[in-house]
Amino acid sequence: MSNKSNYKTIPYETIVSAVNGDPIALNKIVTHFRGFTRSKCIRVIKDDEGNERQYVDEDMQERIEAKLISSIINKFKPE
Q1: Where are the alpha helices (DSSP H) in 1-79?
Q2: 25 in helix, strand or coil?
Q3: What mean pLDDT value characterizes the chain?
Q4: Regarding beta strands 42-46 and 52-56, do their DSSP bridges make them parallel or antiparallel, or are they unpaired?
Q5: pTM of the full predicted structure?
Q6: How far apart are CA 5 and CA 12, in angstroms?
Q7: Among 37, 26, 68, CA closest to 10
Q8: CA-to-CA distance for 48 and 12, rounded, in angstroms?
Q9: Rounded Cα distance, 23 and 40, in Å
């Protein structure tokens, strides 16, 4: 079994640009993690007849993405 991951990594140059506030680099990182953030924002609701359905809470997703951007700019320090 290989230790290689099937997921693409974010290039170091993109990370450095994002830390410096480059909006294109920040968008690339947010897009990279969008599937993960969406999976954490799934909610289940019941209708009047008791049927359940799932939906993505887009407000929560926007808050998570804003927090990701804030953390990249303010806290993350690449070596």
Answers
A1: 12-19, 23-39, 58-74
A2: helix
A3: 91
A4: antiparallel
A5: 0.79
A6: 17
A7: 26
A8: 50
A9: 24
